[in-house]
Write a structure and sequence with these properties.
Elements (H helix, E strand, L loop, with lengths): L2 H13 L15 H11 L2 E5 L9 E2 L6 E2 L1 E5 L8
Antiparallel strand pairs: 1-4, 2-3
Length: 81
């Protein structure tokens, strides 16, 4: 276990009673949050979403128009799903 995680867990244990249904962290971690964490940690990469013809799917309008992307987790060999 990373020392920073151990320290954080210890501090939270001291703040509240340890009950069977108690949460360690107050907020729920969503799949999107988890994917962004994987991306920041280098365990995932961002890829452009393409249509059936291989063209980028565009989102937004005007100056904010851009290709749609998704986060792909890498496996042990470095390839995504």
């Amino acid at each position: 276990m990373h020392p920073q995680l151990a320290d954080e867990l210890k501090s939270r244990r001291d703040e509240s009673l340890a009950l069977p249904k108690a949460k360690v962290f107050p907020e729920t971690v969503t799949d999107r949050t988890r994917q962004k964490d994987f991306l920041r940690a280098g365990l995932a990469r961002e890829v452009v979403v393409t249509d059936a013809d291989g063209n980028p799917v565009m989102i937004g309008s005007g100056g904010r128009r851009r290709p749609k992307t998704r986060i792909v987790a890498e496996d042990a060999e470095g390839s995504g799903d």
